[in-house]
């Protein structure tokens, strides 16, 4: 039932009085994310909401610059408004240097 609602159990210390109703243990919290039906997965961060800049992977762990993804604003998915903003940015603001 929780999967149909888009709920994801997250490990964290909770004092939620209703946690027993949902079958979650003391260390789990119910996080329900409502994703609009018109949204799509972010093409820059692959749905994580985390931007990875210059760096490398060492022993399976990314070592380098990270931050909130600009294209989806850290949500992991892009709404039509985000897509419109990104299209404008890509076509009118962003500059590419093809010499290097």
Can you walk me through this structure?
The protein has two helices and six strands. Mean pLDDT is 76; it is low at 1-14. A hairpin with a 2-residue loop joins strand 4 and strand 5. The strands form three sheets. The protein has a two-stranded antiparallel sheet. With 100 residues, the chain is an alpha+beta fold.
Helix-strand sequence = HEEEEEEH
Low-confidence stretches: 1-14
Number of strands: 6
Helix count from the secondary structure assignment: 2
Radius of gyration: 18 Å
Cα end-to-end separation:
53 Å
**What is the oligomer described by this structure?**
single chain
The secondary structure category is alpha+beta
Strand order of the largest sheet: 1-2
The coarse silhouette is flat
Strand content: 25-35%
Largest sheet: 2 strands, antiparallel
What value does the average pLDDT take?
76
| Helicity, as a percent range | 10-25%
Pick out its properties.
100 residues; alpha+beta; two-stranded antiparallel sheet
Can I get a quick summary?
The protein is α+β, with helices and mostly antiparallel strands and 100 residues long. The relative contact order is 0.14. The chain has 2 helices and 6 strands, in the order αββββββα.
What is the element layout, followed by pairings?
Layout: H1 2-5, E1 7-11, E2 28-32, E3 40-41, E4 50-58, E5 61-68, E6 77-78, H2 80-93
Antiparallel strand pairs: 1-2, 3-6, 4-5
């Amino acid at each position: 039932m929780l999967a149909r609602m888009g709920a994801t159990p997250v490990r964290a210390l909770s004092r939620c009085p209703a946690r027993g109703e949902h079958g979650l243990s003391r260390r789990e919290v119910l996080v329900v994310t409502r994703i609009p039906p018109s949204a799509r997965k972010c093409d820059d961060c692959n749905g994580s909401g985390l931007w990875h800049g210059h760096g490398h992977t060492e022993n399976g762990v990314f070592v380098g610059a990270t931050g909130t993804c600009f294209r989806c604003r850290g949500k992991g998915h892009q709404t039509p408004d985000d897509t419109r903003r990104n299209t404008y940015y890509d076509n009118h603001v962003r500059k590419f240097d093809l010499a290097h």
